[in-house]
Input
Amino acid sequence: MQSSEANNTAELYSRLTDLAEKPVLRIPQQEMESYLQYFEKHCAGSKRMTDAAKKFIPGGVQHNLAFNYPFPLVIVKAEGAYLYDTDGNRYIDFLQAGGPTVLGSNYPAVREKVIQLISECGPSTGLFHEYEYKLAELVSRLIPSVEMFRMVGSGTEAVMASLRLARVITGKKYIIKCGGAYHGWSDQMVYGMRIPGTGRFDAHGIPTGSTRYINEVFPNDLKVLEKRLKINRLLGGTAAVILEPVGPESGTRPVDDNYNASVRKLCDQYGALLIFDEVVTAFRISMNGAQGYYGVTPDLTVFGKVIAGGYPGAGGIGGRREYMERFAAGLQTGKKVMVGGTMAATPLSAAAGYFSLLEMESNDACGKAARAGDLLTTGLQKLISSYGLPYVAYNQGSICHLETTGTLFIKLNYLKIFKVLEEIKKRKHVMEEMGAAYMAEGLVTLAGSRMYTSMADTDEIIEDALSRFENVFKKIKTKAS
Ligand SMILES: Cc1ncc(COP(=O)(O)O)c(C=O)c1O
Output
């Protein structure tokens, strides 16, 4: 992984909290109206279809990432670094399906293999297929901590399985996660989401028992983690600490370079397993995962996204043989850990993953995507500084962050909770406006604040993207302007 500057975590946090404490900057009303006009004038087909869909789909879209403001766009074509909507508009695609397509969208060499496979045996059979073996062997070669690999249907399922396995192996119940981290939407993990300290805030419809043995600790804070491990020891012990090695939410809350190694030591000291959730980072940060980059070996690794190269059925767990054997399929005796899924490890998912990883390895896709991430981030940093904006841009290789509102860094104050929630709502709307402005300028981002780059992002494409970002930034009025 490269990154535009050696990210100084303490300084980044201070700038991010500073941003959250300052009044939020908005695109002036008239300029925003003309951005909204773009959608009315140029995206009528999308509006018609997504309006009609509201009758049948709750909220009008099925996917949480489909940008909603002012209305979702209907995408009809994805190719490399570009997306095309139903009205014929082209966008530079920094969403990249939420991260899985490090080769760029719809990579022809993988697509051809998938089409060939589907023509021969269809997408699924329920029986053994050569690609489930080939993918498992390849993952094990690329990531040495993965002696065995079990494929499941999604990252959410893989996290669930990893927690279950950790409890069986250790005989302990508690799971510690970092506050603000997203590890999928299973009952247990809807706890401390997005903003640290929010606990069961989003756990509607989830019985308290489901999250009873989940603790959240503040990211990048080893003291709090050790304190929690100590308390849990008195209560029966911690089965696992689960974390994203780059920090929660793909590094939206970054961690120090030595954080993972220190957590490894603490886990060993307190007899807890270390689970790396590499749903985003495996085969994006490097072909050896973030664990290869940081040189830290987890007990279990959770996979998703890139593991199926952007095709459906993207999930898996890997780790030491003696642990992983508990996942053996079929009817077993003994303490087997239950996992399953009709659509787990289909020939389609496994072949798509296998050929994507091979293509990525031979083309140095992670290196090229990271270089594009560096170029994008240094360009954004220059723009931010030249327009005197309080924004914060940084990257971990091909994961780029552009914080313009500091929404997730608002300090929680339960005594003034209504005021805090009001402020979060306001800032979220400004984020939506920023996302809409980028979109009208021909840029697709993740919620207006994160960009995934891919191998398809040439220097020219990044230059083009930067000039589009600049069109938005120059409209923002600061006190100095
Ligand atoms: C770090 C992390 N873990 C788990 C998940 C859940 O994966 P999935 O969406 O495949 O269920 C995600 C999804 O974005 C993720 O980013």
Q: What stands out?
A: Residues 98, 154-156, 159, 182-184, 244, 277, 279-280, 304, 314-315 surround pyridoxal-5'-phosphate (CB under 6 Å).
